[in-house]
Specification:
The complex is a heterodimer of chains A (338) and B (670). Chain A has 338 residues and is of the alpha/beta class. Helix content of chain A is 33%, strand content 21%. Chain A has a domain of 58 residues. In chain A, the strands form 2 sheets. An 8-stranded mixed β-sheet of chain A has the order 6-7-8-3-9-10-12-11, with helices on both faces. In chain A, strands 2-1-4-5 form a 4-stranded antiparallel β-sheet. In chain A, a hairpin with a 2-residue loop joins strand 9 and strand 10. In chain A, helix 3 crosses helix 4, helix 3 runs parallel beside helix 6 and helix 6 packs parallel to helix 7. Chain A is globular. The relative contact order of chain A is 0.13. With 670 residues, chain B is of the alpha/beta class. Chain B has a domain of 261 residues: MetI-like (MetI-like fold, Orthogonal Bundle). Chain B has 25 helices and 12 strands. In chain B, the strands form 2 sheets. An 8-stranded mixed β-sheet of chain B has the order 6-7-8-3-9-10-12-11, with helices on both faces. A 4-stranded antiparallel β-sheet of chain B has the order 2-1-4-5, covered by helices on one side. In chain B, helix 21 links the parallel strand 7 and strand 8. Chain B is elongated and about 105 Å long. Classes of the chains: A alpha/beta (338), B alpha/beta (670). Chains A and B meet through helix 2, helix 3, helix 6, helix 7 and helix 8 of A and helix 7, helix 8, helix 21 and helix 22 of B.
Chain lengths: 338, 670
């Protein structure tokens, strides 16, 4: 496979907890811990997880909206550390973020034309007046908002959610980026129009040969839309692999729980993974495997040792002790015998 | 997945260009009045010295003369012309007012927005500065400073007012900036690569204009008043004419005792008038700035009207009287079957209007005892409006011009929910029918413990119960929904989203209702938590025997849990069928499209076709069938006839394909 366009290498992000009394030094929220992820040109990678799993934080770290606590973000193989100033603007011209709520991501007092004109003037500095308008028309046409002039003079509240999300894709397109980071791009939209937006994103990925990160909580949509899927739980990536493999032969117990919880009337088997708990605190995450308090298959070593990443098949990995060659650690008596 | 060309072009009247919109703000008579009065004062202030008939300080023989042709507003004790004094005074008063407002606003915007946007140390330093100025006692300081600067004229007073006044505005703007900075559109602008200065100028400030303008106009009024007070107290240069100075001389020369009303009334009136005018402008300003409010026609007058427009005859016996007797025990444990005829709620031809817009149009359905009725629909389909209308919790301007909602009591008597008076309605809600809303965080009171909120419902509806009884019931209810009893003392923010939603369900169950209406109760939750809640609801339903109206956009979830499914589109029910039939044989083209929009997890990947276009705008519904513009099988007649619900086997679908004139069934051809 070719080299990744954008890459997170052992990225960690801790947010300090604000409080009036700081007890026992500084407490932090472990939003993202030691996560590595690669995005390839022309491919869609899904990042699946429930709220608070750190998936949106990871997207924002890749966009350099926050600085990483440790680890590296690499664009075309080069480490970037650019959360402000010129270097930041340089980075975002290559990596564009699309936000979840189209109604909130537009300035309510600015017309669509003026919002897009700003993006165009940042990324096409040489264009002026009528040329700018031509670029805006082209962007709107590319996102299937035709005829474009019917949308430019509107204010955000006059458009539907689907139309606004297309405008926000157009705004991201203005930069002609190499990477799109789509943070739940359809979850606040109506069911019947989600497919149209996802198809548009897929078309852009293929036509422009860009890398796409598709952040979602809907693992079924990852199966249909992304070639690869990474599952996040409590700030860590617990399973990665081709989407079809991850959804059909889920390896990690958390992925299995996620899949069996998703509503799916065409499911025939009533087999359901029993959930026995609540999402963990990210301020003091559980020791060992972070999923162990909820895991129906938890072993003794899961409480103590953090599982490494196990290769299950070609490109399919899981961080779970069940896949170690010897799931239970050597028993004490055997250790004695040796 | 086939790539669908999106049909997005809409035909609608062109909006007036943005530049002309401010004219619309002026069309409001009150705003227009305010603007005209303010403009008159500004013009008078500018040209006053030229059009004044006399020198305001010139002494004449006509001492203390009432208004006459020579002196329109009369004269002072020294024979000075009051009209001329007023005109000269307007200049000084308006200059102080506008000057202080400009400087105050600039200071507060600079400090407030910078502190709010930059945050960190600069925020702390600037906030400290603002706080120090905020605790300075304004009026005494003004008086003292003015006393030290008596001959600096208006400029001194402007400086004094600005220095003592900017801190309040800075605090407000800082708080606003802090909240705006977290909004998505600011983050989106950052992610686009916009410079900080531009984000402040183009994203933050325009959204604060209403506050800034209000503060500006407020400061003008306050400054004019302060100037008048200082001058009246003699703390300014009393030889420089202003409205306050006129009052000072009037008071000094005992105008009140001599009854020379013309001496002080004009100055007082002028101050009152400009204050009123600025307030009127202030009201109009938000409408002018906010593009959402610019659209005229969001009628507030209609809001005064009654919720149910038709006056109804009380043909049903009082529901409240039944409550006085012992509660009829509910037949628990009779599981719902598809052929049940035990109707508990019947909705007939219900219509709900928001002004001229019909959100729910001629909807009829029945809910049977123990049944789970799932209502599916996209935004604007009217599903939530329907939920609110069933419980009569709809708020003006929503009103019900037509329809019946008939509830069958446990003893078999039938009441019309729309005919209930407030007292009956209160007994009906929560005791017979309760609601669980979408956002538990907003529906729960953040400053009350969860247990107290459940107890509140008991206190209101079971006045005879004792405190220990209620406490026991609270623990019982929490146990039913799976919340540990010790969490009763938690505040809502201390519970997780799933826990809060369960607490809401506990409140809904508190009075053993017969029907629970759930409006997207799990939409904001993760799938794993959603599964826990749904399993809990189904278990409780089987155990306690209530009926459920479950509203959501998630069709997969609905098919899994409902007995019967109603699909809404454009305010109407377009398909009504048993859940299993619906899943196997969806009849309406919209239902088919919806089912083909959902990615599936089990089984082979299938083609997702989706539905082109967007859900309809209820203000501009297409003629005939509302789904026609998006329908893959639409034909000419669809534009002319509104389809009614046709019976197809055990299902009903509102589609002309099934009318007797169009015998072809797509179910057979497909």
């Amino acid at each position: 496979m070719t080299a990744p366009v954008l890459e997170a290498v052992d990225v960690t992000k801790h947010f300090p907890v604000r409080g009036l009394i700081r007890r026992g030094g500084s407490r932090v929220v472990h939003a993202v811990d030691n996560v590595s992820l690669k995005l390839y040109a022309g491919r869609i990678t899904a990042l699946v997880g429930e709220s608070g799993s750190g998936k949106s934080t990871l997207a924002r770290l890749l966009a350099q909206l926050y600085p990483v606590t440790s680890g590296e973000i690499r664009l075309h193989g080069e480490t970037v550390q650019a959360t402000r100033g010129k270097a930041f603007r340089e980075h975002v011209s290559k990596v564009q973020l699309i936000l979840q709520d189209p109604f909130a991501s537009f300035n309510p007092v600015a017309s669509i034309a003026s919002t897009l004109r700003r993006a165009v003037s940042i990324h096409h500095e040489d264009k002026r007046g009528p040329e700018q308008l031509a670029v805006i028309d082209d962007l709107l046409t590319q996102t299937n908002l035709v005829p474009p002039r019917q949308f430019t003079e509107k204010f955000p509240h006059e458009l539907s959610g689907g139309q606004l999300q297309r405008v926000s894709i157009a705004r991201a397109l203005a930069a002609s980026p190499d990477v799109f980071l789509a943070d739940e791009p359809v979850s606040s939209l109506d069911v019947s129009i989600r497919l149209g937006i996802l198809n548009l994103l897929r078309r852009l990925t293929e036509e422009r040969d860009v890398a796409m990160l598709y952040v979602t909580h809907d693992i079924a949509s990852a199966r249909y839309f992304a070639s690869d899927t990474a599952v996040m739980y409590a700030g860590e990536i617990v399973e990665t692999g081709p989407s079809e493999t991850v959804t059909q032969q889920a390896a990690h117990p958390y992925t299995q729980l996620l899949i069996s919880s998703a509503p799916d009337p065409s499911r025939t088997d009533a087999k359901r993974v029993k959930d026995i708990g609540q999402p963990p605190s990210l301020i003091s995450p559980p020791s060992g495997c972070r999923f162990h308090p909820r895991c129906p298959f938890a072993l003794a070593r899961c409480k103590q040792e953090t599982p490494p990443t196990f290769q299950l098949a070609d490109g399919h990995t899981a961080r779970c002790w069940l896949y170690a060659d010897n799931p239970e650690p050597a028993a004490p008596e055997r250790a004695d015998a040796q | 997945m086939a790539i669908q060309p999106a049909v997005l072009a809409e035909t609608e009247p062109a909006e007036p260009a943005a530049g002309r919109l401010w004219l619309r703000a002026l069309r409001k008579p009150l705003t227009l009045t305010g603007v005209i009065i303010t403009l008159v004062f500004v013009v008078l202030a500018v040209v006053g010295p030229w059009i004044a008939p006399y020198d305001p300080s010139a002494v004449s023989d006509a001492a203390t003369a009432p208004p006459s042709f020579a002196h329109w507003l009369g004269t002072t004790q020294n024979g000075q012309d009051i009209l001329s004094q007023m005109l000269y005074g307007a200049q000084a008063s308006m200059l102080v007012g506008l000057g202080s407002a400009v400087i105050t606003t600039i200071l507060s915007v600079l400090v407030g927005v910078t502190a709010g946007y930059l945050g960190g140390t600069s925020d702390e330093l600037l906030s400290l500065l603002a706080n120090v100025f905020l605790v300075l006692p304004g009026l005494p300081l003004t008086i003292i400073l003015a006393a030290y600067l008596p001959h600096s004229g208006s400029l001194g007073i402007i400086l004094v007012i600005s220095l003592t006044g900017w801190a309040w505005g800075a605090r407000v703007l800082r708080a606003q900036t802090l909240s705006l900075r977290k909004r998505d559109f600011v983050e989106a602008a950052r992610a686009t690569g916009e410079r900080t200065s531009k984000i402040i100028l183009r994203d933050i400030l325009p959204n604060q204009l209403a506050v800034i303008a209000a503060a500006f106009l407020g400061t003008v009024t306050a400054a004019i008043l302060t100037q008048a007070s200082l001058a009246f107290l003699g703390l300014t240069d009393v030889t420089q004419w202003s409205w306050g100075t006129i009052l000072y001389w009037a008071q000094a020369d005992s105008a009140l005792l001599t009854g020379s009303w013309w001496w002080f009334v004009p100055a007082g009136l002028a101050i009152a008038l400009i204050g009123t005018a600025l307030s009127l402008v202030n009201f109009g300003i938000d409408e002018f700035i906010n593009p959402r409010l610019r659209q005229a026609g969001v009628g507030t007058k209609k809001a005064q009207r009654a919720q149910v427009s038709r006056t109804r005859t009380k043909r049903v016996k009082r529901a409240a009287s039944r409550r006085s007797g012992p509660r009829q025990p509910r037949p628990v444990g009779t599981p719902f079957t598809a052929d049940s005829t035990d109707v508990i709620l019947e909705v007939r031809n219900l219509k709900v209007n928001y002004g001229a817009v019909t959100a729910v149009d001629d909807v009829s359905f029945t809910l049977r005892r123990g049944e789970v009725l799932g209502i599916a629909g996209e935004s604007g389909s009217g599903k939530s409006t329907l939920a609110y209308a069933i419980t009569r919790l709809h708020k003006p301007p929503a009103e019900i011009p037509q329809g019946e909602i008939r509830y069958t009591n446990a003893d078999g008597s039938i009441v019309d929910v729309l005919a209930m008076d407030d007292e009956q309605l209160r007994a009906f809600r929560w005791e017979e029918l309760s609601i669980v809303f979408q956002s538990a965080m907003h529906a729960l009171n953040p400053i009350m413990r969860v247990g107290e909120q459940i107890e509140d419902a008991l206190v209101a509806h079971r006045p005879g119960s004792t405190a220990p009884e209620r406490a026991a019931r609270v623990v019982e209810l929490l146990g039913i929904v799976g919340i540990p009893a010790d969490r009763a003392n938690s505040y809502p923010h201390e519970l997780s989203g799933g826990m809060r939603q369960r607490a809401m369900i506990a409140v809904g169950l508190a009075l053993d209702p017969e029907i629970i209406v759930m409006d997207e109760p799990t939409t904001a939750l993760d799938v794993v938590i959603q599964r826990q809640i749904i399993d809990k609801i189904m278990e409780l339903k089987d155990r306690l025997g209530f009926s459920v109206v479950f509203i959501t956009h998630d069709l997969s979830l609905l098919i899994e849990m409902s007995d019967t499914i109603a699909v809404m589109y454009g305010g109407k029910i377009v398909e009504l069928a048993a859940a299993e039939d619906f899943h196997q044989r969806p009849q309406h083209p919209y239902s088919r499209g919806l089912l083909e929009s959902f990615p599936t997890l089990s089984g082979p990947k299938r083609e997702l076709s989706g539905i082109p276009g967007s859900p309809p705008d209820l203000r501009r519904l297409p003629s005939g069938c509302a789904f026609r513009p998006r329908c893959p099988v639409a034909f000419d007649a669809c534009a002319e006839h509104e389809p009614e619900l046709y019976q197809i086997g055990s299902s009903q679908a509102a589609c002309l394909l099934y009318s007797s004139d169009h015998a072809v069934k797509i179910g057979e051809t497909a």
